[in-house]
Amino acid sequence: MPKSINASEVKKIVFVCEAGIGSSLMSVNSLKKKFRKAGIDGVTIVHSATTAVEADTKFIVCHKQLMESARDKAPDAVIVGFDLFFNDPVFDELTQAFIDGTEIAETENKKKK
């Protein structure tokens, strides 16, 4: 069963990428803009390379290909994965969850066998 966390418990979103530059940084800024537009306060969104994720991180957003690496760094975190750096529905779903204060379930990462 996937882990979950109530949006009201999340004070920091760690947006994880491979190197910390490029498309993922634009995605971070887009998510910040969505949160500002929605009037969501009290949540910090930070950008981090996978190698720099702290073990006590509670909530991570990353590309689905990086979920296992993020899990290795922060085994107790709830990790939400996305497919597209731009206009992925996950970003709107996250924003809505924070507006509504609802539960956010971890993305299931189905490995190819």
What does this structure look like?
The structure is a single chain. This protein is of the alpha/beta class and 113 residues long. It is built from three helices and six strands. It has helices at residues 23-38, 67-73, 89-100, and strands spanning 4-6, 12-17, 44-49, 59-63, 78-82, 103-105. The strands form two sheets. Strands 3-2-4-5 form a four-stranded parallel sheet, sandwiched between helices. Strands 1-6 form a two-stranded antiparallel ribbon. α1 links the parallel β2 (12-17) and β3. The longest helix has 16 residues, at 23-38. The radius of gyration is 13 Å and the shape is globular. It starts with a strand and ends in an 8-residue tail after the last strand. The mean pLDDT is 91.
